[in-house]
């Protein structure tokens, strides 16, 4: 709440101020620079998060040698609290320069014309509009173009927030990556591509001096191209992790039923194993078992992460001659084919992020330029509020609820009750996760088409108004001439 109070004035008032007191041809490039720097922050944030995720949550309080899991395990809890201390201190330092901003800045002179701002040439006048807020707000929400912009932004941002929230989990479950590596890859590859795309979009706007219709065309085109790239991600898949009793049978065949009872087999029925306990071991046959007991292991050697289980009777159920009947702690790694598929996925993801970001600055120019200057601040503020609150808060909730339906194995809290999901059906995860993103983005493109149509109609209407005024002026002039002379004016003959 405190962050919201402090941050809310910065973007709406700051961007509107920038648009008012800079050259029109430079606004797009300035916006792109601000948004690009804004992406660099999350990039370092993801890198910091990746580092913290590799550190155990109780730094210095627990001997890591006695911990039997590592950062690649789904039960690992990283030092989530450390990032808040670092970023909190940095945010305090970032607020200091705001105290030294001048009360007013000189207006940049346009190359084509020199306009006075609020009656004062070259200086800033009253920045906040003098008009009452409610009438201004009413006029904004009676504008069909503005309503379409709000709806389009809401739907598109909902899809983006849902995607970026669960993308690390998607990479972890589908391609077998650790959570720290998934966060690191997003920070070091995706976000720089977004920053480069934003600055590229701003440069295109400045270089070709695009109008509001040109900006809308660029934004729509980049959105459609990025959507096509996003569609290809559905086919970049890996098969489910082989977990006995969940995704494959104890004989190594694909499992068709995911009921808890399938975790029991003839090889472990007499062991009185707990079906709720998740402590996966990787057998020499390449299959993961939910815990050593369900693998039928009878003895163990070693300590902590180096513990090895022997005489695991269930390993022998697979019709593949294993080298031994032993298992080690942790889930089995994915195949090499899955690693190659992950590289293709990252390449498509980075390219799609770049193309999509190229339309960000043109889209913001459409938001700024379609309304009157007097309502510009309310325009940006309402857009910012709607996108952050309505478009940013609900998506993680319904995305998470839909993804949880693909869970195969739930963890159990120490005091009872359902914990976090330990294993997902990757096919169902991919279908639900990407399917919801596809639906939201497709709806946003339909709204973009309606928005572009309304912009074209408004552009034609404004273009026709000067012609009508000129024609009316010519008619009045002819009428006055006739009234003064009593005769119609002579018509000139073009030679």
TrEMBL record:
Membrane topology label: Multi-pass membrane protein
Q: Which residues form the Kazal-like domain?
A: 261-316
- What is the name of the protein in this document? Solute carrier organic anion transporter family member
State the GO CC annotations. Answer: basolateral plasma membrane
- Spell out the InterPro entries in the cross-references: Kazal_dom, Kazal_dom_sf, MFS_trans_sf, OATP
Family matches, as Pfam families: Kazal_2, OATP
Transmembrane parts of this sequence: 28-57, 78-100, 145-166, 182-204, 344-365, 433-452
Gene Ontology BP term (one): monoatomic ion transport
Cite the record's Basic and acidic residues compositional bias ranges. Answer: 476-495
Q: What is its main location?
A: membrane
Under Gene Ontology molecular function, one entry of this record is: sodium-independent organic anion transmembrane transporter activity
Instruction: Quote the subcellular location field of this record.
Output: Cell membrane
What family name appears in the similarity comment? Answer: Belongs to the organo anion transporter (TC 2.A.60) family.
Q: Residue ranges of region Disordered?
A: 463-495
Organism source for this protein? Answer: Denticeps clupeoides (denticle herring)
Q: Which domain of life is it from?
A: Eukaryota
SUPFAM superfamilies registered for this protein in UniProt: Kazal-type serine protease inhibitors, MFS general substrate transporter
UniProt-listed PROSITE patterns: KAZAL_2
């Amino acid at each position: 709440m405190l962050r919201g109070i402090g941050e809310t004035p910065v973007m709406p008032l700051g961007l509107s101020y920038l648009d008012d007191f800079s050259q029109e041809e430079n606004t797009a490039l300035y916006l792109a620079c601000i948004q690009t720097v804004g992406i660099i922050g999350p990039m370092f944030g993801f890198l910091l998060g990746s580092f913290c995720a590799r550190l155990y949550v109780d730094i210095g309080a627990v001997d890591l040698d006695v911990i039997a899991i590592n950062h690649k395990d789904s039960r690992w809890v990283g030092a989530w609290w450390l990032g808040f201390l670092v970023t909190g201190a940095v945010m305090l330092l970032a607020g200091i320069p705001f105290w030294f901003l001048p009360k007013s800045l000189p207006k940049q002179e346009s190359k084509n014309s020199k306009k006075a701002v609020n009656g004062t040439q070259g200086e800033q006048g009253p920045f906040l509009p003098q008009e009452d807020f409610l009438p201004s707000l009413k006029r904004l929400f009676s504008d069909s173009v503005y309503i379409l912009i709000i709806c389009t932004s809401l739907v598109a941002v909902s899809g983006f927030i849902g995607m970026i929230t669960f993308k690390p989990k998607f990479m972890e479950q589908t391609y077998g990556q650790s959570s720290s590596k998934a966060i690191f890859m997003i920070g070091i590859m995706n976000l720089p591509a977004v920053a480069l795309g934003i600055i590229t979009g701003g440069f295109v706007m400045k270089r070709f001096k695009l109008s509001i219709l040109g900006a809308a065309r660029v934004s729509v085109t980049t959105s459609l191209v990025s959507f096509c790239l996003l569609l290809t991600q559905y086919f970049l898949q890996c098969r489910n992790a082989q977990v006995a009793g969940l995704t494959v049978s104890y004989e190594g065949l694909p499992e068709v039923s995911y009921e808890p009872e399938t975790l029991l087999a003839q090889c472990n029925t007499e062991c009185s194993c707990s079906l709720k306990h998740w402590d996966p071991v990787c057998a020499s046959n390449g299959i993961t078992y939910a815990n050593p007991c369900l693998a039928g292991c009878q003895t163990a050697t070693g300590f902590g992460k180096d513990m090895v289980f022997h005489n695991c009777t269930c390993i022998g159920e697979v019709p593949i001659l294993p080298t031994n009947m032993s298992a080690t702690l942790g889930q089995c790694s994915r195949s090499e084919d899955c690693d190659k598929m992950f590289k293709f996925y990252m390449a498509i993801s980075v390219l799609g992020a770049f193309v999509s970001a190229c339309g960000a600055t043109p889209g913001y120019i459409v938001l700024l330029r379609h309304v009157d200057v007097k309502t510009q601040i309310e325009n940006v503020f309402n857009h910012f509020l709607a996108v952050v609150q309505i478009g940013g808060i609900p998506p993680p909730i319904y995305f998470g609820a839909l993804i949880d339906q693909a869970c195969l194995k739930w963890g159990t809290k120490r005091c009872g009750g359902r914990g976090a999901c330990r294993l997902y059906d990757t096919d169902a995860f991919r279908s639900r996760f990407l399917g919801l993103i596809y639906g939201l983005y497709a709806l946003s493109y339909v709204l973009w088409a309606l928005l572009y149509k309304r912009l074209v109609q408004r552009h034609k209407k404004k273009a026709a108004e000067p012609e009508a005024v000129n024609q009316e002026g010519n008619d009045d002039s002819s009428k006055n001439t006739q009234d003064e002379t009593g005769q119609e004016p002579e018509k000139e003959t073009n030679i």
